[in-house]
Amino acid sequence: MKKLFLVTLVLFSLHLNSVQAKDQFIGPNFSGVYSCKGTNNKVGEYEVVATLKLNRISSHGEFGMYDFNTETENSLVYRGQAIANGNTLALTFNLTDGRNADYSTGIAEIQKISSTRWAYTNHYYEPDDNGGDYGSEHCVMQKPVKKIKNTKKIKKLPALVPAQG
Questions:
Q1: Model pTM greater than 0.85?
Q2: What is the chain's Cα-based Rg?
Q3: CB contact at 8 A, 20 and 26
Q4: Residue 138: which H helix or E strand, with range?
């Protein structure tokens, strides 16, 4: 009976490990800050900064789930989500102005532009009561900021001895 229990326990453990391995995220990580230049059929040309941050808890297999934010030139921040399947990315964010909630929905193909950086072109649609608008934006991941090491050595000062009085 003891052997049967141990064999069952080992098989159950192997099954759990295989289930966890199957669900593990194995796709590329597109997390980063992107500089975007776009054009919109109503607004014209514009620039924004987009940030993608991988949600490791929800990501699985080839599907990467992301928190997605876009910040405009006048510091408005739109929050949303994105999901990647391989190098295809679907994006959405809320265009709330306090009175109603409209959404931007986009689709993008991501390309690797260096060993550590990505770029994508997002084609999007934003519905409204007047037929909506559409556009596209080309976004390039910003280069990581290199941290500069402080090479100056700090001199240790001698310990102060309290004056005896």
A1: no
A2: 25
A3: no
A4: strand 133-141
